[in-house]
UniProtKB/TrEMBL annotation:
CDD domains: QOR2. SUPFAM superfamilies: GroES-like, NAD(P)-binding Rossmann-fold domains. This is Quinone oxidoreductase. One of its GO terms (cellular component) is cytosol. It comes from Desulfovibrio subterraneus. NCBIfam families: PRK10754.1.
Length: 325
């Protein structure tokens, strides 16, 4: 019998229980996957807390992993037992030693990329890909502001944006995280606890504002993020680690310079099979040529998932956090 982290009710990290679990055999179109490593992300916290409700309980959370195909169901021709694969996105179920997953959600994992690195980069890396190419077509000479610049997504965005020739400004919560962000290509890390990041952004851009803000923090940064943009700039609100953004008058967007706002999801940007493969291909390419380095800041055993959540929510993490199986 294999094991998984299951939750029977929403709430705090203590809801995550280590239990015996049998996923069963793959149905038509499914793959039985044995994980080697699993990624931990804020969306897992949202699922655990009930902020993003799951369809049913008990449930196994987790949106990202890497491992080896053990068996395939009828109609699966793209994969076979022994293949190295990785994934990020729906359906949840990654916090398990073994799981069933639709074959169309998997991507082949190049031999040059280790399982632990893959588990720490698929969701963050493909998120960075749609942020930089899908939401806003970033190009050389643009200037960005990325919140949580030393975090999992932030670290990838900083590196990839610099590779594209953009100027990178980022907010961080400590001197240590400022150094992490700087090492990842953030030329201007701002200690948001010590100085007003809006004033600093305007100083750095000589009053112009940035072309795009990537905001995964939400409630505590949203309105200030709007104030950092140039006229007709774009705010990409893709997370809410500080809480949900409260309702606001969309006339504010006009008052602040005919701004654009989007609230995207990786699930929509990678729903089509060809789009999923394109996101993974581009990510693997920049990683394999060294333009983007995936930093794994924390490793926990799978049964220590609750401790991983506590560290993530306390903002005591840098880079990626993974669960080893």
């Amino acid at each position: 019998m294999t094991h998984a982290i299951r939750m029977h009710a929403t709430g705090g990290p203590d809801m995550l229980q280590w239990e015996a679990y049998d996923p069963g055999e793959p149905s038509s179109g499914e793959v039985l996957l044995r994980h080697v490593a699993v990624g931990v992300n804020f969306i897992d916290v949202y699922h655990r807390s009930g902020l993003y409700p799951l369809p049913t309980l008990p449930a196994i959370i987790g949106m990202e992993g890497a491992g080896v195909v053990e068996a395939v169901g009828d109609g699966v021709t793209e994969f076979r037992p022994g293949d190295r694969v990785a994934y990020a996105g729906n359906p949840p179920g990654a916090y398990a030693e073994v799981r069933l997953i639709p074959a169309r959600r998997l991507v082949p994992l190049p031999d040059a990329i280790p399982f632990d690195q893959a588990a720490g980069m698929m969701l963050r890396g493909m998120t960075a890909r749609y942020l930089l190419f899908g939401c806003f077509p970033l190009k050389a000479g643009d200037t960005i502001l990325i919140h949580a610049a030393a975090g999992g997504v932030g670290s990838v965005v900083c590196q990839w944006a610099r590779h594209l020739g953009a100027t990178v400004i980022g907010t961080v919560g400590s001197v240590a995280k400022a150094e992490v962000a700087r090492a990842n290509g953030c030329q201007h890390p701002i200690l948001y606890r010590d100085e007003d990041f809006v004033a600093k952004v305007m100083q750095l851009t000589e009053g112009r504002g940035v072309d795009v803000v990537y905001d995964s923090v939400g409630k505590s940064t949203f309105m200030k993020s709007l104030s950092c943009l140039r006229p007709m700039g774009m705010l990409v609100s893709f997370g809410q680690s500080s809480g949900s953004v409260p309702p606001f008058d969309p006339g504010i967007l006009a008052a602040k310079g005919s701004l654009f706002l989007t609230r995207p999801s990786l699930m929509h940007y990678t729903e089509a099979r060809e789009d999923l493969l394109a996101h993974a291909r581009d990510l693997f390419e920049v990683v394999q040529k060294g333009a983007v380095h995936i930093s794994i800041g924390q490793r926990f055993a799978l049964h220590e998932a609750a401790a991983a959540h506590r560290a993530l929510e306390a903002r005591n993490t840098t880079g990626s956090t993974i669960l080893m199986v």
